[in-house]
């Protein structure tokens, strides 16, 4: 265990050194917000906290957003549970195929979602592209969950090898610009997260061209909301440098124990920008509400954990510990609530309410 932590620390230190070199050659796309503007933006909000949200009735982004399976009743119910514990922000993934299938309907459903979230006093972080999990997505009926397997039906966007093919970029540009232009001044949207974990699923730097392109497209729209793409892998120095230097607000992912999470915070502080942790809390890895969330509040860093309600995504199961018979894991990996709205752990919910000054 100590060897693992030593290696993590060594990697972080090496990354901090090599990132300086990478920054020297990093292109800046468009006009990044000044540090002063970013911090002024951040100060207008109370402490940002919430979850990555997928309704329990959806296995992936397509099932959430396609007309036949869009489920406003469940969204309303589950966001009500989030509101009850003081959560004020949800991070929500979009999908380009749902837009391609029905452009106007897709934007209407986005607006409907925002109306529901706003009723519950919840801001939204929308995510465009994603390099995680299954390589190919298909429009239409989505598969059922595989028992005991984390995110068995989650799909990449725009997929693999599609994300590597520049011939696909004009259509993706139209998608990003159409959606952002429609909502560029919408106060219900907190931030645009342009690309989730670029380079994941073995893509590495093949994701760099699309990453640079989506920032270019977003800057051309020039939304009132800030834009960002979260740092998540310290050894991806070229991607990390680009993400950090082109983001108005620094976002990042960290599923490690608090002492290692604190080191990440200390390193990212050097940018002088507001920070939001857009993924954390994996119980079996030692990243817990009780030991990480108080640090994030103390440091005034946004805290968005993965998962709100146990559902078809199966993210109560750990990434690397499938239970193919579908039995209940001894300890849930993610999620706050059971399907009936009762907390998985009452003491966690009480802590979240206390941190949010909810009596």
From TrEMBL:
Transmembrane segments: none annotated. Residues 1-22 form the signal peptide. SUPFAM superfamilies: (Trans)glycosidases. It comes from Pedobacter psychrotolerans. Residues 140-163 are annotated as: Disordered. Keywords: Hydrolase, Signal. GO terms for molecular function: hydrolase activity, hydrolyzing O-glycosyl compounds. Gene3D superfamilies: Glycosidases. InterPro entries: GH (IPR017853), Glyco_hydro_2_cat (IPR006103). One of its GO terms (biological process) is carbohydrate metabolic process. This is Cellulase (Glycosyl hydrolase family 5). Residues 167-286 form the Glycoside hydrolase family 2 catalytic domain.
């Amino acid at each position: 265990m100590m060897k693992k932590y030593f290696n993590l620390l060594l990697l972080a230190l090496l990354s901090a050194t090599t990132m300086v070199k990478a920054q020297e050659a990093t292109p800046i796309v468009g006009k990044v917000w000044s540090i002063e503007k970013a911090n002024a933006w951040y100060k207008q909000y109370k402490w940002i906290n919430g979850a990555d949200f997928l309704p329990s009735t959806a296995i992936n982004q397509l099932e959430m957003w396609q007309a036949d399976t869009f489920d406003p009743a469940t969204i309303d119910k589950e966001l009500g549970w989030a509101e009850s514990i003081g959560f004020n922000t949800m991070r929500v993934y979009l999908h380009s195929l749902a837009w391609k299938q029905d452009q106007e309907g897709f934007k209407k459903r986005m607006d409907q979602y925002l109306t529901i979230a706003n009723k519950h006093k919840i801001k939204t972080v929308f995510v465009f592209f994603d390099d995680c999990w299954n390589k190919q997505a298909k429009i239409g009926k989505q598969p059922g969950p595989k028992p005991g397997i984390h995110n068995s039906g989650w799909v990449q966007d725009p997929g693999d090898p599609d994300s590597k093919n520049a011939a696909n970029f004009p259509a993706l540009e139209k998608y990003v610009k159409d959606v952002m232009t429609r909502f560029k001044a919408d106060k219900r949207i907190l931030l645009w997260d342009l690309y989730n974990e670029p380079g994941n699923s073995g893509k590495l730097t093949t994701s760099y061209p699309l990453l640079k392109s989506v920032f270019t497209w977003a800057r051309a729209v020039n939304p009132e909301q800030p834009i960002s793409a979260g740092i998540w892998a310290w050894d991806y120095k070229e991607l990390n440098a680009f993400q950090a230097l082109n983001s108005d607000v620094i976002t990042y992912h960290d599923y490690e124990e608090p002492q290692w999470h604190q080191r990440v915070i200390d390193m990212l502080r050097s940018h002088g920008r507001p920070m939001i942790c857009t993924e954390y809390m994996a119980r079996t890895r030692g990243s817990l509400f009780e030991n990480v969330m108080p640090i994030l509040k103390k440091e005034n860093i946004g805290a968005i954990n993965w998962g709100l309600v146990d559902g078809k995504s199966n993210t109560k199961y750990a990434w690397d510990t499938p239970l193919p018979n579908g039995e209940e894991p001894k300890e849930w990996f993610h999620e706050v609530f059971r399907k009936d709205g009762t907390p998985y752990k009452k003491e966690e919910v009480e802590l979240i309410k206390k941190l949010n000054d909810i009596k």
